[in-house]
Amino acid sequence: MAFGSTTGMNESRKLYVKSFGCQMNVYDSRRMADTLAPEGFVETAEAGDADLVILNTCHIREKAAEKVYSELGRLRRMKEAAAAQGRRMLVAVAGCVAQAEGQEIIRRAPSVDLVFGPQNYHRLPELVARAERGGQAVDTEFALEDKFDHLAPPSRAAIRARGASAFVTVQEGCDKFCTFCVVPYTRGAEVSRPVEKVVAEVTHLATAGVREITLIGQNVNAYHGEGSDGRIWSLRRLLDRIAQIDGVERLRYTTSHPRDMDNDLITAHRDLPQLMPQLHLPVQSGADRILRAMNRRHSRADYLDIVRRLRDARPDLALTSDFIVGFPGETERDFADTLALVEEVGFSGAFSFKYSPRPGTPGAEMDDQISEQEKSERLQRLQWTIDRNQAAFNHSCRGRTFDVLFEKPGRHEGQLVGRSPYLQPVQVQAPASLIGEIAAVTITEVASNSLFGVLAHQPRAASRAMQVPASEPGLLRAGA
Ligand code: SAH
Ligand code: SF4
Ligand code: F3S
Description:
The protein has 480 residues and is α/β, with parallel strands linked by helices.
């Protein structure tokens, strides 16, 4: 069959998009699907059926990047099977590996038809048409135009299918250059979207029934977007504005850098009832020596001071974080400082990673690389400490009553699963009409990965029910 013109199609074609990365990567995947929808592409859950398969890749750690090539091996066989049936399957590699490796991907995996970076996917219809005309297409130039101006908005049906919680990108890229990290190279310099564009997108989502908005960015709290008054707005001002939009009942933002956690933003946690009492604030290490070598540009004491001020502003705030173990030069004593920091803060959860030297970053060139065995051993000890903290936090929720946003049917008949303000999954006996709604729940039991509760009040008749996807992790692990 032909992948004809880019201007409207009546024949439907199947699209399969798979995300390998962070929240921004997931958001980009959705926007790719939105942009291809007017071209007649309909999403399918089976890669084997698809006319176009897009792998939206992550470059953050070696494991994440290598996963792409094993996936491409599988796709090559699917592509051959499709060809044997007289069907053409296009294979595209998008995202941060595409940005970092470009043409090299086609050299290693010649069955790939298309390679494009995170700043180029608004050109997808044109790129797909080009690949269809024969030949391969690579587009990893940082685009001069704003991709957001060229993306089709999601249809109401797409919004409903994705559930009552949505991500909205407000900021992209990074100027911080931590010495372990590839993001400044794969995503480019920091750019913030103008306030009115963000407001329009959130309004569109809220009108279609979305109740919870998470503003996302690699450094979301470095947001400095142009406001309608022509001035530069901070994330605090943006949050104030978004909180006024009808239907936005819950607000979150992620991921934040400690350096940009200013007082205005801290007090937003006191002033804005929609802002959920949970914050992801990666610290990476508890040792000043290592923080310096990582170029994080804050100390352990700075971090603890921010945590104290946040908890003064919002006493029920729960914190989550990211950690790297085995950064070059990390001694047992430095690592002990990290464990002590976890205990001191009492995180409600955290992701921890073994340091992965990434080509082109200063960390990869440093002396004193830590052995794989040492990294594994430290990772295990850190994870054990984090798990204990998380279990203690979950147990402290027993007997509490808080609002749950219901997402989908639960494991058992008559059960729904929703998210607490702290993003924990909560299983509750509740009518299906509550899907997409918020209701107060009293927590009665705590298991390792979820909470169980009962509705605190008889449900009022739900006004809007939503259909939701099968799984939607609240706290996504970048390139897990
Ligand atoms: N902008 C965010 C982090 C984005 S990357 C911040 O500054 O906090 C997500 C997480 O991946 C990081 O917090 C870090 O813990 C981890 N990470 C990044 N590069 C890594 C590397 N080279 N090896 C191991 N983990 C890494
Ligand atoms: Fe990477 Fe975050 Fe550091 Fe930027 S601030 S270089 S995204 S870890
Ligand atoms: Fe890119 Fe996100 Fe991974 S910015 S490198 S997809 S963590």
